[in-house]
Amino acid sequence: IFAEAFLNVRGGRLVFQMYEVKFWDECGYFSVMSRLYHITLYLGFLVSGIVDLLSVYCKLPKCTSQLFLALAFYNQAFLFYYHVHGRNLFNITIHKLLAMCIVVTAVFVTLRMLNPRNLLINTGIAAGMILQGTHLIQAGSLIYGTAKIHPTSHS
Question: How much is the pTM?
Answer without folding.
Answer: 0.75
